[in-house]
Amino acid sequence: MKFDKEYFSKLFLLFWTFAKIAALVVGGGLAMLPVIEETFVNRKKILTSDELLDMISLTQTVPGIIAVNSAVYVGWKVAGFFGAIFAVTGVILPSFLVILFIAILFPELKPDNIYIKGAFAGVRAAITGMIAVTAFNTVKKSVKSKIDAALVVAAFVACAIFKVNPAYVICSAMPVGLLLLVWKKEESK
Question: How many CB atoms are closer than 10 A to CB 133?
Fold first, then answer.
């Protein structure tokens, strides 16, 4: 790893991009995913669509905050250890400052204020739309066969209708995915 001007510009890009995303995208990690895709896949061409899909899968299955997990993944992919540190710092700093500001003003805030209620109602609607876009794009990219579609439907039914803990669904999906991989390899021989 060379610590040259190009490397430091990557570190700044990671910090600044994740700081902007964290400051401007309300709703957590899932709401950030479309912005991460637009920035790092479409505009900067730093990640591929497949790498983004891997990131989404990984950040959903490992413990931790999705936004931070995403920052670690992208930062590491772009600039190694220090890239992960800069991206995580960028994604955490705006939230820390906002929470600090709210804590200072908290005694003055009135939760029954119609303006605050109206703002949060609008934000909730926007976040719901952004999460729906993320879900739609993820399904579109990851469902490549009828078996994939059946697994998506089975996971949805298990979680939405039967209220199965998502951790159990994920843990069940791993061996199924491995079996399908082995089956596809045997079929291609």
Answer: 15
Q: What angle do CA 90, 96, 101 make, to 5 degrees?
A: 135
pTM higher than 0.90 for the full model? no
Long-range pairs of 130-137 with CB within 8 A, sequence gap ≥ 24: 130/25, 130/27, 130/30, 130/31, 130/34, 131/27, 131/30, 131/31, 133/34, 134/30, 134/31, 134/33, 134/34, 134/56, 137/34, 137/37
Angle at the Cα of 97 from the Cα atoms of 135 and 13, rounded to 5 degrees = 60
Tell me how far CA of residue 94 lies from CA of 88, 101, 154, 173, in angstroms: 11, 10, 38, 35
> What integer pLDDT is reported at residue 1 of this predicted model?
66
Q: Report, as ranges of residue numbers, the positions in the chain whose pLDDT lies below 50.
A: none
| Count of C-beta atoms within a 10 Å radius of residue 160 | 9
